[in-house]
Amino acid sequence: MLAEVRASVEVSIRFDGGLLDSRLARVLELVDELGSLRAACRRLGLPYTVAWRSLARLERALGCEVVRSRRGGASGGGGELTEVGRRILGLYEAALKAASRAVEGKPEGYVTPLRVAGSHDPALELLLDLLRGEGCQVDVRWVGSAGGLAYLMTGVADVAGVHLYDPDSGCYNKPYVSRFWLENKAMLVRGYLRELGLAYRRREPCTLRDVLLGKAKMVNRTLGSGTRLLTDIMLDEECRRLGLPREAKLKAKGYGYEVHTHLEAAEAVASRRADVAVVVRYAAESLGLGFKPVRWESFDFAVSADRLTARRVQSFLDTLRSREFREKIEELPGYRAPEDMGRVLYYPGALASH
Protein backbone atom coordinates (compact mmCIF):
# COMPACT_ATOMS: atom_id res chain seq x y z
CA MET A 1 0.00 0.00 0.00
CA LEU A 2 2.77 2.47 0.90
CA ALA A 3 4.37 1.92 -2.49
CA GLU A 4 1.33 3.63 -4.04
CA VAL A 5 1.75 6.80 -1.95
CA ARG A 6 3.63 9.71 -3.49
CA ALA A 7 5.09 12.37 -1.23
CA SER A 8 5.21 16.06 -2.05
CA VAL A 9 6.76 19.03 -0.29
CA GLU A 10 6.22 22.77 0.20
CA VAL A 11 9.35 24.93 0.01
CA SER A 12 9.71 28.54 1.18
CA ILE A 13 12.87 30.65 1.05
CA ARG A 14 13.17 33.70 3.30
CA PHE A 15 15.22 36.78 2.43
CA ASP A 16 15.37 39.08 5.47
CA GLY A 17 11.64 39.89 5.58
CA GLY A 18 10.84 38.76 2.04
CA LEU A 19 9.40 35.35 1.26
CA LEU A 20 9.57 33.28 -1.90
CA ASP A 21 6.99 30.51 -1.51
CA SER A 22 5.35 28.18 -4.02
CA ARG A 23 2.66 30.72 -4.92
CA LEU A 24 5.07 33.56 -5.69
CA ALA A 25 7.44 31.17 -7.46
CA ARG A 26 4.60 30.09 -9.74
CA VAL A 27 3.81 33.76 -10.40
CA LEU A 28 7.42 34.38 -11.43
CA GLU A 29 7.38 31.32 -13.71
CA LEU A 30 4.29 32.65 -15.47
CA VAL A 31 5.71 36.18 -15.74
CA ASP A 32 8.66 34.60 -17.55
CA GLU A 33 6.28 32.63 -19.79
CA LEU A 34 3.58 35.27 -20.43
CA GLY A 35 5.59 38.49 -20.15
CA SER A 36 3.14 40.14 -17.76
CA LEU A 37 2.46 40.09 -14.01
CA ARG A 38 -1.21 40.83 -14.61
CA ALA A 39 -1.51 37.95 -17.11
CA ALA A 40 0.20 35.63 -14.63
CA CYS A 41 -2.34 36.58 -11.95
CA ARG A 42 -5.25 36.00 -14.31
CA ARG A 43 -3.89 32.54 -15.21
CA LEU A 44 -3.69 31.62 -11.50
CA GLY A 45 -6.95 33.31 -10.44
CA LEU A 46 -4.86 35.36 -8.00
CA PRO A 47 -5.67 38.98 -7.12
CA TYR A 48 -3.13 41.29 -8.75
CA THR A 49 -2.70 43.33 -5.55
CA VAL A 50 -1.88 40.20 -3.52
CA ALA A 51 0.87 39.17 -5.97
CA TRP A 52 2.16 42.72 -6.25
CA ARG A 53 2.48 43.11 -2.47
CA SER A 54 4.31 39.78 -2.09
CA LEU A 55 6.65 40.77 -4.91
CA ALA A 56 7.22 44.23 -3.42
CA ARG A 57 8.16 42.73 -0.02
CA LEU A 58 10.62 40.37 -1.71
CA GLU A 59 12.20 43.19 -3.73
CA ARG A 60 12.54 45.39 -0.62
CA ALA A 61 14.27 42.54 1.20
CA LEU A 62 16.64 41.92 -1.73
CA GLY A 63 17.22 45.61 -2.41
CA CYS A 64 16.70 45.20 -6.15
CA GLU A 65 14.07 44.45 -8.80
CA VAL A 66 12.88 40.91 -9.41
CA VAL A 67 10.39 41.85 -12.15
CA ARG A 68 11.16 44.76 -14.50
CA SER A 69 8.23 46.64 -16.06
CA ARG A 70 8.12 47.21 -19.79
CA ARG A 71 5.99 50.01 -21.19
CA GLY A 72 4.45 50.52 -24.60
CA GLY A 73 4.80 48.35 -27.65
CA ALA A 74 2.16 46.47 -29.59
CA SER A 75 1.10 44.52 -26.51
CA GLY A 76 0.78 47.63 -24.36
CA GLY A 77 3.69 46.80 -22.08
CA GLY A 78 4.27 44.04 -19.56
CA GLY A 79 7.01 42.67 -17.36
CA GLU A 80 10.06 40.40 -17.42
CA LEU A 81 12.29 38.74 -14.86
CA THR A 82 15.53 40.50 -14.07
CA GLU A 83 18.79 38.57 -13.76
CA VAL A 84 18.26 38.49 -10.00
CA GLY A 85 14.71 37.24 -10.57
CA ARG A 86 15.96 34.38 -12.70
CA ARG A 87 18.64 33.50 -10.16
CA ILE A 88 16.32 33.32 -7.15
CA LEU A 89 13.71 31.38 -9.17
CA GLY A 90 16.47 28.94 -10.13
CA LEU A 91 17.47 28.75 -6.45
CA TYR A 92 13.89 27.97 -5.48
CA GLU A 93 13.53 25.27 -8.14
CA ALA A 94 16.80 23.67 -7.04
CA ALA A 95 15.67 23.71 -3.39
CA LEU A 96 12.32 22.18 -4.35
CA LYS A 97 13.99 19.38 -6.33
CA ALA A 98 16.38 18.67 -3.46
CA ALA A 99 13.55 18.56 -0.93
CA SER A 100 11.47 16.33 -3.20
CA ARG A 101 14.37 13.90 -3.60
CA ALA A 102 14.80 13.86 0.18
CA VAL A 103 11.28 12.56 0.77
CA GLU A 104 10.97 10.38 -2.35
CA GLY A 105 10.30 6.83 -1.23
CA LYS A 106 9.73 7.96 2.38
CA PRO A 107 5.97 8.57 2.60
CA GLU A 108 6.03 8.05 6.37
CA GLY A 109 7.68 11.48 6.63
CA TYR A 110 5.11 13.24 4.46
CA VAL A 111 2.93 15.82 6.20
CA THR A 112 -0.50 16.26 4.62
CA PRO A 113 -1.20 19.95 3.98
CA LEU A 114 -4.34 21.68 5.23
CA ARG A 115 -6.61 21.77 2.20
CA VAL A 116 -8.79 24.88 2.13
CA ALA A 117 -11.32 25.65 -0.60
CA GLY A 118 -14.15 28.09 -1.09
CA SER A 119 -14.67 31.80 -1.23
CA HIS A 120 -11.74 34.18 -1.43
CA ASP A 121 -11.48 36.58 1.51
CA PRO A 122 -8.68 38.96 2.62
CA ALA A 123 -9.13 38.04 6.29
CA LEU A 124 -8.91 34.34 5.48
CA GLU A 125 -5.62 35.04 3.70
CA LEU A 126 -4.34 36.57 6.95
CA LEU A 127 -5.44 33.48 8.88
CA LEU A 128 -3.66 31.17 6.43
CA ASP A 129 -0.52 33.32 6.61
CA LEU A 130 -0.53 32.86 10.41
CA LEU A 131 -0.78 29.10 9.91
CA ARG A 132 2.10 29.11 7.44
CA GLY A 133 4.15 31.12 9.91
CA GLU A 134 3.65 28.30 12.42
CA GLY A 135 4.96 25.76 9.93
CA CYS A 136 1.62 24.43 8.69
CA GLN A 137 1.55 23.58 4.99
CA VAL A 138 -1.53 24.96 3.23
CA ASP A 139 -3.10 24.12 -0.12
CA VAL A 140 -5.79 26.70 -0.97
CA ARG A 141 -8.20 26.87 -3.90
CA TRP A 142 -10.44 29.91 -4.45
CA VAL A 143 -13.44 28.21 -6.08
CA GLY A 144 -16.34 30.14 -4.56
CA SER A 145 -18.54 29.16 -1.60
CA ALA A 146 -20.55 26.55 -3.52
CA GLY A 147 -17.35 25.13 -4.98
CA GLY A 148 -15.84 24.88 -1.49
CA LEU A 149 -18.83 22.88 -0.21
CA ALA A 150 -18.59 20.62 -3.26
CA TYR A 151 -14.89 20.05 -2.55
CA LEU A 152 -15.76 19.22 1.07
CA MET A 153 -18.50 16.82 0.00
CA THR A 154 -16.12 14.91 -2.29
CA GLY A 155 -13.30 14.81 0.29
CA VAL A 156 -10.95 17.10 -1.64
CA ALA A 157 -10.96 19.80 1.09
CA ASP A 158 -10.65 19.79 4.88
CA VAL A 159 -12.17 23.26 5.33
CA ALA A 160 -14.45 25.40 3.16
CA GLY A 161 -14.89 29.17 3.59
CA VAL A 162 -18.53 30.07 2.86
CA HIS A 163 -20.88 33.06 2.83
CA LEU A 164 -24.07 31.89 1.12
CA TYR A 165 -27.26 33.82 1.83
CA ASP A 166 -30.59 32.02 1.81
CA PRO A 167 -33.38 34.52 1.00
CA ASP A 168 -36.12 32.13 2.19
CA SER A 169 -34.82 31.79 5.75
CA GLY A 170 -32.82 35.03 5.91
CA CYS A 171 -29.85 33.00 7.21
CA TYR A 172 -26.31 32.58 6.00
CA ASN A 173 -24.64 29.23 5.33
CA LYS A 174 -26.52 26.78 7.56
CA PRO A 175 -29.31 26.04 5.02
CA TYR A 176 -26.67 25.04 2.48
CA VAL A 177 -25.23 22.23 4.62
CA SER A 178 -28.11 19.94 3.69
CA ARG A 179 -28.25 21.17 0.09
CA PHE A 180 -24.75 19.80 -0.43
CA TRP A 181 -25.53 16.52 1.39
CA LEU A 182 -23.18 17.40 4.23
CA GLU A 183 -25.58 16.85 7.18
CA ASN A 184 -23.55 13.88 8.39
CA LYS A 185 -20.19 14.91 7.01
CA ALA A 186 -19.40 18.42 8.16
CA MET A 187 -19.53 20.88 11.03
CA LEU A 188 -20.27 24.56 10.54
CA VAL A 189 -18.00 26.83 12.58
CA ARG A 190 -18.63 30.51 13.31
CA GLY A 191 -16.25 32.76 11.46
CA TYR A 192 -16.46 36.54 11.32
CA LEU A 193 -18.59 39.33 9.87
CA ARG A 194 -17.70 41.46 6.90
CA GLU A 195 -19.39 44.44 5.27
CA LEU A 196 -20.51 44.22 1.65
CA GLY A 197 -21.53 47.12 -0.53
CA LEU A 198 -21.26 48.84 -3.88
CA ALA A 199 -17.84 50.09 -4.97
CA TYR A 200 -17.57 52.95 -7.44
CA ARG A 201 -15.07 55.62 -8.39
CA ARG A 202 -15.23 58.63 -6.09
CA ARG A 203 -17.22 61.51 -7.60
CA GLU A 204 -18.80 59.00 -10.00
CA PRO A 205 -21.35 57.19 -7.82
CA CYS A 206 -23.60 54.65 -9.52
CA THR A 207 -25.81 51.75 -8.55
CA LEU A 208 -27.12 48.47 -9.94
CA ARG A 209 -30.22 50.40 -11.00
CA ASP A 210 -27.99 52.46 -13.30
CA VAL A 211 -26.64 49.20 -14.74
CA LEU A 212 -30.15 47.88 -15.48
CA LEU A 213 -31.05 51.19 -17.12
CA GLY A 214 -28.01 50.97 -19.38
CA LYS A 215 -26.24 53.94 -17.78
CA ALA A 216 -23.30 52.01 -16.27
CA LYS A 217 -21.33 48.77 -16.55
CA MET A 218 -20.91 46.29 -13.72
CA VAL A 219 -18.30 43.63 -13.01
CA ASN A 220 -19.69 40.33 -11.74
CA ARG A 221 -18.32 37.43 -9.72
CA THR A 222 -18.05 33.83 -10.90
CA LEU A 223 -21.06 31.54 -10.71
CA GLY A 224 -21.13 29.66 -7.39
CA SER A 225 -19.61 32.43 -5.31
CA GLY A 226 -21.56 33.87 -2.39
CA THR A 227 -21.15 37.40 -3.72
CA ARG A 228 -22.58 36.33 -7.12
CA LEU A 229 -25.61 34.90 -5.32
CA LEU A 230 -26.15 38.14 -3.41
CA THR A 231 -25.60 40.24 -6.54
CA ASP A 232 -28.29 38.25 -8.36
CA ILE A 233 -30.69 38.78 -5.46
CA MET A 234 -30.00 42.53 -5.50
CA LEU A 235 -30.48 42.70 -9.28
CA ASP A 236 -33.76 40.78 -9.01
CA GLU A 237 -35.01 43.28 -6.43
CA GLU A 238 -34.06 46.21 -8.67
CA CYS A 239 -35.81 44.56 -11.62
CA ARG A 240 -38.98 44.25 -9.54
CA ARG A 241 -38.83 47.92 -8.52
CA LEU A 242 -38.34 48.97 -12.14
CA GLY A 243 -41.11 46.72 -13.39
CA LEU A 244 -38.67 44.62 -15.41
CA PRO A 245 -38.65 40.81 -15.72
CA ARG A 246 -35.92 39.08 -13.72
CA GLU A 247 -34.34 37.92 -16.96
CA ALA A 248 -33.50 41.55 -17.76
CA LYS A 249 -30.42 41.27 -15.56
CA LEU A 250 -28.91 38.78 -18.00
CA LYS A 251 -28.71 41.55 -20.60
CA ALA A 252 -27.27 44.14 -18.20
CA LYS A 253 -23.95 45.57 -19.35
CA GLY A 254 -21.11 43.71 -17.64
CA TYR A 255 -23.28 40.92 -16.20
CA GLY A 256 -21.14 38.36 -18.03
CA TYR A 257 -17.86 40.07 -17.05
CA GLU A 258 -16.72 37.75 -14.23
CA VAL A 259 -13.73 37.83 -11.88
CA HIS A 260 -12.69 35.53 -9.04
CA THR A 261 -12.03 37.86 -6.10
CA HIS A 262 -13.17 41.07 -4.41
CA LEU A 263 -9.86 42.77 -5.11
CA GLU A 264 -10.09 41.90 -8.81
CA ALA A 265 -13.60 43.35 -8.94
CA ALA A 266 -12.48 46.54 -7.18
CA GLU A 267 -9.49 46.79 -9.51
CA ALA A 268 -11.81 46.57 -12.53
CA VAL A 269 -13.74 49.58 -11.23
CA ALA A 270 -10.60 51.53 -10.35
CA SER A 271 -9.15 50.94 -13.83
CA ARG A 272 -12.45 51.96 -15.52
CA ARG A 273 -13.10 48.55 -17.01
CA ALA A 274 -16.35 48.68 -15.02
CA ASP A 275 -18.29 51.32 -13.08
CA VAL A 276 -19.71 49.42 -10.11
CA ALA A 277 -19.17 46.14 -8.26
CA VAL A 278 -20.44 44.37 -5.15
CA VAL A 279 -17.36 43.97 -2.92
CA VAL A 280 -16.26 43.97 0.71
CA ARG A 281 -15.43 47.39 2.15
CA TYR A 282 -11.79 46.38 2.58
CA ALA A 283 -11.34 45.87 -1.18
CA ALA A 284 -12.99 49.20 -2.05
CA GLU A 285 -10.96 51.21 0.47
CA SER A 286 -7.71 49.44 -0.49
CA LEU A 287 -8.04 50.93 -3.98
CA GLY A 288 -9.41 54.32 -2.94
CA LEU A 289 -12.94 53.71 -4.23
CA GLY A 290 -16.22 55.06 -2.95
CA PHE A 291 -18.34 52.57 -1.00
CA LYS A 292 -22.08 52.38 -0.36
CA PRO A 293 -22.86 49.81 2.40
CA VAL A 294 -25.44 47.13 1.65
CA ARG A 295 -25.22 44.59 4.47
CA TRP A 296 -23.06 42.75 6.97
CA GLU A 297 -22.70 39.06 6.20
CA SER A 298 -21.42 35.96 7.98
CA PHE A 299 -18.27 34.35 6.63
CA ASP A 300 -18.18 30.90 8.27
CA PHE A 301 -16.27 27.65 7.84
CA ALA A 302 -17.54 24.18 7.02
CA VAL A 303 -15.13 21.58 8.43
CA SER A 304 -14.88 17.90 7.54
CA ALA A 305 -16.08 15.89 10.55
CA ASP A 306 -13.89 12.93 9.56
CA ARG A 307 -10.75 15.08 9.74
CA LEU A 308 -11.61 17.08 12.83
CA THR A 309 -8.97 15.37 14.95
CA ALA A 310 -6.20 15.87 12.37
CA ARG A 311 -3.49 18.19 13.65
CA ARG A 312 -3.74 20.44 10.60
CA VAL A 313 -7.49 21.00 11.16
CA GLN A 314 -7.04 21.58 14.88
CA SER A 315 -4.32 24.13 14.09
CA PHE A 316 -6.75 25.94 11.79
CA LEU A 317 -9.45 26.08 14.49
CA ASP A 318 -6.95 27.14 17.18
CA THR A 319 -5.73 29.98 14.97
CA LEU A 320 -9.30 31.05 14.15
CA ARG A 321 -9.99 31.32 17.90
CA SER A 322 -6.67 32.98 18.76
CA ARG A 323 -6.26 36.47 20.16
CA GLU A 324 -3.69 37.26 17.47
CA PHE A 325 -6.15 36.60 14.64
CA ARG A 326 -8.93 38.47 16.45
CA GLU A 327 -6.69 41.53 16.68
CA LYS A 328 -5.85 41.30 12.97
CA ILE A 329 -9.54 41.06 12.07
CA GLU A 330 -10.37 44.16 14.10
CA GLU A 331 -7.70 46.13 12.22
CA LEU A 332 -9.32 45.48 8.84
CA PRO A 333 -11.90 48.04 7.67
CA GLY A 334 -15.29 46.43 7.26
CA TYR A 335 -14.65 43.40 9.47
CA ARG A 336 -15.91 42.37 12.91
CA ALA A 337 -14.84 39.47 15.11
CA PRO A 338 -17.87 38.17 17.08
CA GLU A 339 -17.40 37.05 20.66
CA ASP A 340 -18.13 33.44 19.71
CA MET A 341 -15.79 33.26 16.72
CA GLY A 342 -14.78 29.62 16.39
CA ARG A 343 -17.94 28.22 18.02
CA VAL A 344 -19.50 25.18 16.37
CA LEU A 345 -22.88 26.17 14.90
CA TYR A 346 -23.81 22.83 13.40
CA TYR A 347 -22.84 19.31 14.40
CA PRO A 348 -23.40 16.41 12.00
CA GLY A 349 -26.97 15.23 12.50
CA ALA A 350 -28.07 18.13 14.74
CA LEU A 351 -28.67 21.84 14.16
CA ALA A 352 -27.58 24.51 16.61
CA SER A 353 -29.01 28.01 16.60
CA HIS A 354 -27.23 30.52 14.39
Residues in helices, as a percent range? 25-40%
Number of domains: 2
Residue stretches low in confidence (pLDDT < 50, at least 5 long) are 1-6, 72-76
| Alpha-carbon Rg, integer | 21 Å
- The CATH C-level name of the largest domain is Alpha Beta
**Mean of residue pLDDT values:** 86
CATH architectural designation of the largest domain: 3-Layer(aba) Sandwich
Q: Give me the count of strands.
A: 17
Give the CA-based shape.
globular
> Structural class, please?
alpha+beta
Report the CATH topology name of the largest domain: D-Maltodextrin-Binding Protein, domain 2
Q: Mind summarizing the main beta sheet?
A: 9 strands, mixed
Please give the structural blueprint.
Elements: E1 13-15, E2 18-20, H1 22-34, H2 37-44, H3 48-62, E3 67-70, E4 78-81, H4 83-103, E5 114-118, H5 122-133, E6 138-142, H6 144-153, E7 159-162, E8 165-166, E9 171-172, H7 174-179, E10 186-200, H8 208-212, E11 220-221, H9 226-242, E12 258-259, H10 262-270, E13 277-280, H11 281-286, E14 290-304, H12 311-320, H13 323-331, E15 335-336, E16 344-347, E17 350-351
Parallel strand pairs: 5-6, 5-7, 11-12
Antiparallel strand pairs: 1-2, 3-4, 7-14, 8-9, 10-13, 10-14, 10-15, 10-16, 16-17
Helix pairs in contact: 1-2, 5-12
Task: Give a nutshell description of this structure.
The protein has helices at 22-34, 37-44, 48-62, 83-103, 122-133, 144-153, 174-179, 208-212, 226-242, 262-270, 281-286, 311-320, 323-331, and strands spanning 13-15, 18-20, 67-70, 78-81, 114-118, 138-142, 159-162, 165-166, 171-172, 186-200, 220-221, 258-259, 277-280, 290-304, 335-336, 344-347, 350-351. With 354 residues, the chain is of the alpha+beta class.
